[in-house]
Amino acid sequence: MSDQKIFPGPSSPWWWQTTALIRNSYGLLDKCINKYGTPFSMKINPQTQFVFFDSPEAARDIFTANYKDVFAGPISKPLEPLLGSKSLLLIDHDEHLRMRRFMTPPFTGNVVRDYGEIIRDITVVNTGSWKKNSRVVIQDTMQTISLEVILHAIFGLKEGKRFEKYKQLLVSYLSIFNGKNALFLYIPKLRKKFFRPWAKYLGVVKEVNELIYEDIKSRRKNPQQHDIFSRLLAICDDDGNGISDLELRDQLLTLLLAGHETTAASLSWSLYWIHKTPQVLRNLCDELQPFKNDFNIDNIVKLPFLDAVCRETLRLYPIVPAIGRLLQQPLTIMGHTLPEKTAAILSIYLTHRNPDLYSDPQLFFPQRFIEKQYNSYEFVPFGGGARRCLGMHFALYEMKIVIAQIISNFQLQLANDKTVIAVRRGVTFFPSGKVPMIVK
User: Fold this and answer.
1) Which value, in Å, is the radius of gyration of the alpha carbons in the chain?
2) What is 14-439's CATH superfamily?
């Protein structure tokens, strides 16, 4: 493709735009839309022009395009070192359809509900040391809770040496590409052993592989357990073929990383905004009051204001700021025909802050989700179409149980009034300062 921009956008070199996007994704997106409007163009790698959109109409055109004409794998390529080349997020065409059929059954509603008591118990254990006047760091606790939940859900692990080994390795694995080290994901030429972050990655990924492949070998011999791992092993396609060791390794890592960090970030943001907004806290306490002595999970997860709080959190701070497709054929989006090999990007962050969709979009106002039902092109924290996140229901279910358990049992107060901004941790964004609170 010619270097001629399809739409207005930054004129700086591609590597500068990539660095700026890694350093401050939300800030750069805000600057671009304020200066250029939408659509706008960016160069995030030397070969591809990225065109950003921020509307439900664009979401509809992207999500409903033929899966053979729009590939997500090339856009997610930076995640390959973390997830593996066979991750559901990196494959396309019929290969993606086949793998999605394998991955869907463990995330149906009935299966997800099996984990309700587990999520609550893990939350109780990890908040058990919270005492009156003690200082707690919300992000640290949420990361521990979400990691233990996902280890239990995927591997059936609750305690013991293997449980602790997975916890230790995954924390190390995820921390490698924090902050500016995310450049190693987006600029492959930096992946050299003499750079300390990449050398650390090579060492940790070797340990991770050894651990997972040991489990795969063991499970194939004794497939009696009932966790997600075992469910994946038991599934076959129409020809009787199951999932290969490599495919299984990559899907397990995808579930571990996507199901851990993303939920921890969303929970951290939720608890920050709940306690930053007194009326929201009062409304939530009132709604949860009848369940103080009877924590009925089936009824709690149906509470409208609790649901609205979770959705408003995901609106303001979506798990990832954008999703995209590399066009294999020209595609018309909102009346604009984009040429082949263009990256069509739906900015979830900008769509969720589009004032034509959401009044006072900077305001944390859960009530908007009670007053209006937003459709699947207006509210898109989990993507959409054939690639909508399989863990969507699990994530919302976990968020509701953890928040309800904490709000029902603790009176918390933010430890300071410092301005909180979104900071990168790998591919997700957490609140700066980790949200310290005082138990009142």
Assistant:
1) 22
2) Cytochrome P450 (1.10.630.10)
